[in-house]
Please model this.
Amino acid sequence: MAFRTIRSLIFRSNIKSIFPATTRVPCRTFHRSIPYSSGGIVQHRDTPENNDDTPFEWTEESKSRIETILKKFPKNRKKSGIIHCLFVAQEQNDNWLPLNAMKKVAKLLDVPPMQVYEVATFYTMFNRNPAGKYHIQYCGTTPCQICGSEAIKEAMLNYMGVHEGEVTEDGYFSLTEVECLGACVNAPMVQVNNQEVYENLTPESAVKLLKDFKEGNPMKVGPQNDQINCQGPLGRTTLLDDELPEPVCRDLDALKKEIDDEQKQAQDS
Model:
């Protein structure tokens, strides 16, 4: 307790040196997200929405994607594709993984179902409960919170008319808190369906984002102000040379030929 108190005092004293005396010092509140995705109970519990009778079958598009994924791994190491295949299943099934989807992944990769369950329950990116068509993941880490993420969360939930972790009646939206989305310089931000990110948000632009999604005309991805990518007010200050050298890549075919030639020479001698 004493250590936490001293650490808190040091943090607040440093912050006060940055903000004017009349400014309310922002302070990170201690809270936790609700156990919505893979947190909380990790064992499967049958629900009306998710049980052995909940249907799941691969679509032709998903089969094609998985075929491409599995080409990246040796045939005797197909289980390395568990995470990739779970993402395909989740995207196909409106952003959540029913029990039978995990069983299909296990059968496809020739692994015990338990190995798939272990992955799906460990990573919070996998939703084991129904989610909205647009699953909003808002960042609640300190930089985003200082820049107003709590106000953005409140504005979005008020527009949705639900609590965190719930799905709207029309099935369009659900919202959960995540940490950290890795764009602190563009805080506050949200991520949608584990893919697109929308940064430099305000409560007004966050609600507009939801309205645009509902109308099928989402905002441009990235900063929602005049900022270009993550550039500061001085613009680009590094990597100014556009003619950067190509990355050095090993020619594996040439390397294999070289090894084969050496082995052949050794055998001949």
In short: The first strand starts at residue 134 and ends at 139. The CA atoms of residues 175 and 258 lie 55 Å apart. Residues 252-268 form the longest helix (17 residues).
